[in-house]
Amino acid sequence: xxxxxxxxxxxxxxxxxxxxxxxxxxxxxxxxxxxxxxxxxxxxxxxxxxxxxxxxxxxxxxxxxxxxxxxxxxxxxxxxxxxxxxxxxxxxxxxxxxxxxxxxxxxxxxxxxxxxxxxxxxxxxxxxxxxxxxxxxxxxxxxxxxxxxxxxxxxxxxxxxxxxxxxxxxxxxxxxxxxxxxxxxxxxxxxxxxxxxxxxxxxxxxxxxxxxxxxxxxxxxxxxxxxxxxxxxxxxxxxxxxxxxxxxxxxxxxxxxxxxxxxxxxxxxxxxxxxxxxxxxxxxxxxxxxxxxxxxxxxxxxxxxxxxxxxxxxxxxxx
Length: 319
What we know:
Layout: H1 8-33, H2 43-54, H3 56-86, H4 101-104, H5 106-123, H6 125-128, E1 136-139, H7 146-157, H8 162-175, H9 183-209, E2 218-222, H10 224-233, E3 240-241, H11 243-250, H12 254-281, H13 290-316
Antiparallel strand pairs: 1-2, 1-3
Helix pairs in contact: 1-3, 1-12, 1-13, 3-5, 5-12, 7-8, 8-9, 9-10, 12-13
């Protein structure tokens, strides 16, 4: 295997810099997740997700972040492979080492975290970019259409349902096709109203099932087919993933809760070594305060992992 010739310390510095960036991001991500625990019908968390999903600067940052995850994994794998290649023959006898156990397991814990990220992205991020089906929400204001309102008023005036009203319009148009110079325009209008009837049915289902947010600004719990209907009929409505509902639904499953908690234990082991290791690789350590750096790393790892673990545990407990 021919790998590019880059000095080992250079690769370690790159891994440390990328890892330090990810350590900071984890604090931001864990803090945002705590919004799920607010008893506000997802107002804060949905507003946060809406901002993250519609701000173009954030969208660029997400791509950069995804690239950083992949870069960190590839650099680490590269470092492991080149280190093994530099010493193809193993020691005949086991050597005693002062290296901490978590340091020896970094490659394995990193691989487990990567496997978890693939699953996590399938559950959330890939829903956002449309690769995986999920649950969706749409702003009520974006469904206010003058033609739909006019149709509702006419149907109420004649004592008909909107669908019956459209059928009646179609029948009348068919009777006077030869006399009507605007037959094609009328047909297009009726076809458009049939499409918008699907939107009206979505709104009606939301009313019947109480799927409006407390402030009535959002229609929640839309399925994939309803999302596709809105995107086809009213593309300006731009339905978004309902991450608050998806998180709450996911953590009602005890197996998912257990899997996430196991992952956070693995993450703790990985971070506990990564924090002081980054200081050492970047030359920011000193024998006078090495112990303080290790303690800060342990505290930081505990803080992040407990913040992450609080969400699945408390959601599962109904809090």
